[in-house]
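Here's what a typical entry looks like (Scarecrow-like protein 18):
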Amino acid sequence: MLGSWSQSQLMSSSNSHDRREEEETDHPRPPTAFHMRQLLVSCADLISQSDYSAAKRFFSILSSNSSPYGDSTESYESDQEALRSCYLSLNKITPFIRFCHLTANQAILESIQVGQEAIHIIDFDIMHGVQWPPLMQALAERSNDTLQSPPMLRITGTGQDLNVLHRTGERLSKFAQSLGLRFHFHPLLLLNNDPTSLALYLPSAITLLPDEALAVNCVLYLHRFLKDDSRELLLFLHKIKALNPRVVTVAEREANHSNPLFLQRFLEALDHYTALFDSLEATLPPTSRERLAVEQVWFGREIMDIVAAEGEGRRERHQKLETWEMILKSVGLCQSSLESLRTFTGQDPAKAPLSF
């Protein structure tokens, strides 16, 4: 049944509507998440067209309506110590890094035969070494189950800060001692992350013993070497394969942040980091100091690099899985049978559990 309105009711409704319009004019509503995204895309489009004055106007609107405590759409945007602290926070509050470490460790365990007397792991960019205590524990438990002596474990950890490397080695040594594992840590300072320099430097910098089973660990590392072509990365991988490792573990972000066109790269990054921030939002409250630090310092550094850096200056060049498979296959590395993580062995493809 349709209701009827008196003249006074219509007048009252009209006056109320006028007052709401006046209030909205005096106090405009903040943009919704959808509008914020559209503003970001419009701003990036103007930058791609070199219309910086118009882009600056859009950016002022974004700045006035965003907050570091907002949701994943609003948070759009160092110190090495802060980065290391954020890495530990990221490892604690999300499963991303832990999953990479867990599956890489499983691949290493499966590639090392029970009864192997010595294991040597080369870990590129070891940072705090949080990947290795679970592997040490697994080696100790496997030895107890088989009633054999645990292997001697040697880790060569690379990094750009010798003090951090020494502290990492001390922590790992104490943990290995608590498990009764024979352990040795060798810090390898790599100040130059240029793949060509590394490829020439590695053979003389790394000592390999004949009785050791070698594993090379590249977790969230190789994407830094991707440039407009893959020649330098291929040279580095050829040198790694020449070391004759039992296994090479590779874990990388599933994303496409290497497009030379700014706008396309921006759109890919916007979708990728929106999903990441959504996951943080579901885990921690907006006012969490850990969440704020991870978003602003760790992911903020990545976003700045992907969006603002051009040419040789850009380090964060994440690629899709298919691209990594093609690159690794081209140097003769073969996919192993561990499907939970794409791992690659340096053995003859005919001997690999699963080859391309």
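The CA atoms of residues 41 and 267 lie 7 Å apart.

More examples are in the samples folder.
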